[in-house]
Each structure stands twice: as C-alpha cells, then as structure tokens.
C-alpha cells in the first residue's frame, strides 16, 4: 500500500480539479504546488498565470514567490501587472483562481490580513491581500486550498480580505462581483462545495480514514454534510512521484513518464523555447493596482 501524508492527499486532490486547457490564476504556496502538479500530469495544456505578469509559466519546481525568476524564464509571455489585472482578470478571461487562506468562513470569505480583534495591533499580521480580492471577485470560479482546523475554519473572520459569497446567495450580485465565487474548497480532510440555494459550504467528499465527525470537529461552525458524501480516491503512484519530484527540485516535462523522477537542475527550462502568443496591448487606463502587491503565500494558510 502506498504511504502518503494528508498534505500530499490535499495537493493531489486540488490538482485533479484542474482541467487541461484551463487558464488558472495561481497564488503562491499550496495553490501553486497543486497547479504545477496538474500541469505535470493530466493537464499539460493548463495555462498558469501569476500576478507578477507571467502568462503560461512552466516552472520545473515550486516557485518561491510571484517574483521568482523561473516564472518569467519559462513563460509564454510577460506583461505588466496592470495588464494582468485590467485586461485578463477583471473582464472574466480567467477560468479559475487558486487561492490560499489563513481563515475561511461558511460562505467562503477569506482572511489573509490579520489574526486578532484589532487591525492596528493584531496578534498576527499576515501577508495581506495581494491580488486575491480581485481574483475572488472576477474569476469564473475560485478554488481555495488550506489545512482544516477550528482556527482556520472560523465562525467569524477577524478580517474579510476577499469576498466569497458574503452573507449568502445575493451578496455577490449586490456588490457587483462578476465571477462565480468559491466553487471548491480543498483541505487536508476533504472537499467542500457551496450549497446551490444558500451558498453555504457543504462537505461533499472525504479522504480514506477521515470520518464526517472528524471534519465537523475541525470546523468552527455547524458544518453541513451532503447526503451524497463521496470517498475521494487515494493518490496513485504516478501522482505521488510527480508531486515529490516537484517538491524536490525538478519535474519531467508534461507527456513523459512521471515515474522517471530524475530532478532537473534549477537553471534547466524543460522543452524548447516557445514563442509567446500575440498578447493584445489595449489602451486601458489603470486603476490603482500596485505593482508591488504580494501574492497569497503558504504562510498565510499555515
């Protein structure tokens, strides 16, 4: 029997949710790990977009930050930060946004700003918003990846950084948010999806060895359980090999045998140089989008 950790199960489950050919706006940390695993295995045509301006990045290991040089070195195109937000994200051209969180509530609202009752003097000051509020607002759908506990799955957020479904079904419409909101939450215990009527998160899938009661015990509110609760398949050997190669410093190019786990050096860029697609440069006046914004980090979801 294969041996694997809860984090490996979570990352592989998140990777499985991404389909070949999708455009994915990626946060750093757990979301980036899952997105790059998907591209290395079943979705070689997945287009990874980072808020630093890289489109079609193909890193051979998990990038350290949105400013990691490997993202630009392996990208099809590199554009300005305002263009990423004004032209690609805000008009709804991105299929899915992959985000982390420090706290999440029953309606998929996210906190990555502060822990504690005071913004000015918090118990913990987190990395902040970065591009997450706009990703949550405008992507066709959003997936959130985080470890589950009563601390992270909070009855009430200490700060609302990114709006999920607000106070319920009508909030996104009232706020004029054009994207589909959080459609999937992947944790180290299972998977949650919003109820189609109320938009409250419902447990829809669990991993081997995890009981519904254990998930409830690690949730800060009275968690709803789907009557059609499913058992999520454990990782395959190929998925585990690809993930461990990715973490250890190198993954084989998509389409190769993922069991061949010889790691490439940091400077190696898999495959030939691919000319970037023609990226339109529309004359768009930029709102206040900071080029120094920091993306969601795994530290915010620890």
Any overview of this molecule?
There is one protein chain. With 302 residues, the protein is of the alpha/beta class. The chain has one domain: Glutaconate Coenzyme A-transferase (3-Layer(aba) Sandwich). The chain is 22% helix and 18% strand. The chain contains 8 helices and 14 strands. The strands form 3 sheets. A 10-stranded mixed β-sheet has the order 4-3-2-1-5-10-11-12-13-14, sandwiched between helices. Strands 6-7 form a two-stranded antiparallel ribbon. Strands 8-9 form a two-stranded antiparallel sheet. Helix 1 packs across helix 2 (30-40) and helix 2 crosses helix 8. The protein is globular and about 45 Å long. It starts with 5 loop residues before the first helix and ends in a 54-residue tail after the last helix.
Please describe the biggest sheet, giving its number of strands, its sense, and whether it closes into a barrel: 10 strands, mixed
Helical segment count: 8
Q: What is the CATH C-level name?
A: Alpha Beta
Order of helices and strands: HEHEEHEHEEEEEHEHEEEHEH
């Amino acid at each position: 029997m294969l041996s694997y950790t809860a984090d490996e199960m979570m990352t592989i489950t998140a990777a499985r949710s991404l389909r070949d050919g999708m455009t994915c706006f990626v946060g750093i940390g757990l979301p980036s790990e899952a997105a790059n695993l998907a591209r290395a295995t079943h979705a070689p045509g997945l287009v990874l977009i980072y808020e630093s301006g890289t489109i079609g990045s193909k890193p051979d290991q998990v990038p350290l930050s949105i400013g990691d040089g490997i993202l630009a070195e392996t990208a099809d195109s590199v554009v300005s930060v305002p263009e990423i937000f004004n032209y690609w994200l805000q008009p709804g051209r991105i299929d899915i946004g992959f985000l982390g969180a420090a706290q999440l509530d029953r309606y998929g609202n996210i906190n990555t700003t502060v822990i504690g009752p005071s913004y000015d003097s918090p118990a913990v000051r987190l990395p902040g918003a970065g591009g997450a509020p706009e990703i949550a607002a405008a992507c066709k759908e959003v997936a959130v990846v985080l470890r589950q506990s009563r601390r992270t799955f909070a009855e009430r957020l200490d700060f609302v950084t990114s709006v999920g479904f607000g106070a319920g079904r009508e909030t996104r419409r009232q706020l004029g948010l054009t994207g589909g909101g959080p459609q999937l939450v992947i944790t180290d215990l299972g998977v949650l999806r919003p109820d189609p009527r109320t938009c409250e998160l419902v447990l829809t899938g669990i991993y081997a060895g995890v009981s519904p009661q254990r998930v409830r015990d690690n949730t800060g509110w009275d968690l709803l359980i789907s009557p059609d609760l499913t058992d999520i398949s454990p990782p395959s050997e190929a998925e585990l090999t690809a993930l461990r190669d990715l973490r250890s410093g190198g993954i084989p190019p998509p389409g190769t045998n993922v069991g061949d786990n010889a790691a490439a050096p940091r400077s190696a860029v898999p495959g030939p140089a691919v000319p970037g697609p023609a990226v339109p440069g529309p004359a768009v006046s930029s709102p206040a989008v900071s080029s120094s914004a920091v993306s969601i980090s795994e530290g915010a979801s620890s």
